[in-house]
Amino acid sequence: MTFPDRASGVLLHPTALPGPYGIGTLGTQAFSFIRWLKDAGNSYWQICPLTPTGYGDSPYQGFSAFAGNQNLIDLEELIDAGFLKESDLTSLKDLPESYVDFGNLIPEKTKILHKAWKNYSSDKHPEYFDGEFREFQEDSAFWLDDFCLFMVIKSLNNGKPWNEWVSPLRFRETEALNKIRIESSDEIAYQSFVQYLFHRQWVNLKKQANLNGIRIIGDLPIFVAYDSSDCWANPDLFQLDENLKPIHIAGVPPDYFSSTGQLWGNPLYNWDKMEENGFTWWISILRNKLEQYDALRIDHFRGFSAYWSVPYGEQTAVNGEWIPVPGKRLFKRVREVLGELPIIAEDLGVITDDVVELINEFGLPGMKVLQFAFDSSEDNDYLPHNYDKNCLVYTGTHDNDTTAGWYVSAEKHDRIYALSYMNLPPDADEKELTSAMIRTAYASVSSLAIIPMQDILELGSEARFNTPGTLGGNWCWRIKENALTPEKASKLRELSDIYGRRG
Fold first, then answer.
1. Which one in 36, 132, 271, 413 has a CA-CA gap of 20 to 30 Å to 315?
2. Dist. CA 418–CA 422, nearest whole Å
3. CA separation for the pair 299, 62 (Å, rounded)
4. Domain range 7-498, CATH class
């Protein structure tokens, strides 16, 4: 893919938007953020995956690769539609606004959405969106039916993962599934309704973004969660044994983030089976995501060249091995069916020649992270004077500390090098460093500069979004109300003008 010669954008997951109901949504604050992006001279909004989150609340461990996160649904629209009353939202008003309290938010919002469904289904408002709802169900049936059934059975089993369900449900025996479809038809319809609400709101938000010259960069995890409708409904596409347990699981070897590697736990693909059926699953997911977004970052892109395979049951990712993948044949097939794709390759970490060859063959832009440029333990491919145009530059990603936090904790020689590189005095503080890092990203030759919102707000480690390899305290940071000031927008717009990033 090709971006405009020079452009800029902001990395911010919608959950982190401000607002009164415990989590950022696709409502008023998201539309306000689009206007702020435009005022700041930006052309792109990059987000994390929008899928319904599972264990650990990570958007990279969703219950479905296709479904939307119900917690992002704007409830005020449902009040305007007559499906809810203002008083129905009272329980959410007591939730904190400075972070997402997932443990209390999720059950409360689920109750409210159930109430909206009850009011909708009992009153039947055909004039509102019945026709669109049916069209959505028909267009999405290839994933929606399995997802709704999956979520209902999971609820009937008190949230247990599908591998702990009774055998007839685990193995998807027809009689057992039909029994659920009959006995839980209303709950299945509710799940479909919720997915439509998300779809409707996202389509409207993206349309508004595009009208304002803002394009959305979505994110696709290369692997799906084991406890997902994708794995449950398509076990033959994964490396599972006769009892449907994983044989090997995904991760990465020891790296910048962890001395024992990262053990993600995702099931690995049965690539032989995928290739045998023409990579149908990948074509479906990429088509779906490229309808949802304007461009797509694929996380851990090196997994299309080879994946780190760890035997199931290992406690760390150390005892794994690299297994090759038919990535070239996959993307040739994808290109035949879908044409040239606006895909960004997340190529951070240990990248071998075969990965570089795959990325270059399909002309995909990669990623550069400025925080890595001054780490003496890393190769300095991340230094701006080594870039070419076909890449995206970030001060940091959702997995990094904020730039201010990085500076405070960095080794002394790395700090000295960063200050010297960006022509800062030896006594510069973390806010000055952050400002200089943003300017350096804008000044680089990279076609697109993406800045995490935490760096724009000059926040420290308290605003870190995720720390890989840890549980608890991740994904919950939110912007404070009124933090997105005209002054912040003006500073970014000035940088866009200076460095020609009004793409």
1. 271
2. 6
3. 14
4. alpha beta
The C-alpha angle with vertex 219 and arms to 215 and 222, in degrees rounded to 5, equals 150
Active site residue 299: yes
Model's pTM, two decimal places?
A: 0.96
Which two three-digit tokens encode residue 189? 């319809």
Q: Letter for the amino acid at 499? A: Y
Q: What does the pLDDT average to over 427-453?
A: 98
Tokens 């990248």 -> residue: 351
- Report whether 373 contacts 380 (CB < 8 A): yes
174-183 and 141-156 helices cross at what angle (nearest 10)?
80
Give the whole-number percent of the chain exceeding pLDDT 70: 96
| Strand spans (E) along 26-182 | 44-46
Pairing of strands 306-311, 321-324: antiparallel
Number of Cβ atoms within 10 Å of the Cβ of 127: 7
**Is position 399 annotated as part of the catalytic site?**
yes
pLDDT, tens digit, 9 for 90 and up, residues 365-380:
999 999 999 986 555 8
Residue type, 128: Y
Strand-pairing partners, residue 249, are 267, 310
- pLDDT tens digits, 206-235: 999 999 999 999 999 999 999 999 999 999
* CA 436/CA 440 separation, integer angstroms: 6
Q: Amino acid letter at 329?
A: R
392 forms bridges with which residues in the sheet? 367, 448
Q: HSE (CB half, 13 Å, CA atoms) of 467?
A: 13
Cβ pair 346, 299 in contact under 8 A: yes
Give the torsion sign (CA, 187, 188, 193, 195): positive
**Of 74, 346, 347, 414, catalytic:** 346
If you search the block for the tokens 């909708």, which residue do you land on? 120
Assigned token pair, 221: 């995890």
At 381-395, the pLDDT tens digits run: 899 999 999 999 999
- Look up residue 135 and give its DSSP letter: H
- Is residue 346 part of the annotated active site? The answer reads yes
Please list, in sequence order, all residues whose beta carbon lies within 8 angstroms of the beta carbon of residue 56, skipping any fewer than 6 positions away. 471, 474
Interval 187-204 mean pLDDT: 97
Name the one residue in this structure whose structure tokens are 């909004």: 45
**What is the total residue count of the chain?**
503
Query: How many whole angstroms from its chain centre is CA 491?
Result: 27
Annotated catalytic residue, options 57, 77, 399, 414? 399
Q: Where are the domains of the chain?
A: 7-498
- Helix (H) or strand (E) holding 495, with range, is helix 486-498
Which residue is catalytic, options 57, 74, 299, 347?
299
* Interacting residues of 385 by C-beta distance below 8 A, sequence separation 6+: none
Sequence-separated (6 or more) residues with CB below 8 Å from residue 357: none
The string of DSSP codes covering 147-201 is HHHHHHHHHHTTT--GGGS-HHHHTT-HHHHHHHHHHTHHHHHHHHHHHHHHHHH
pLDDT at 377: 59
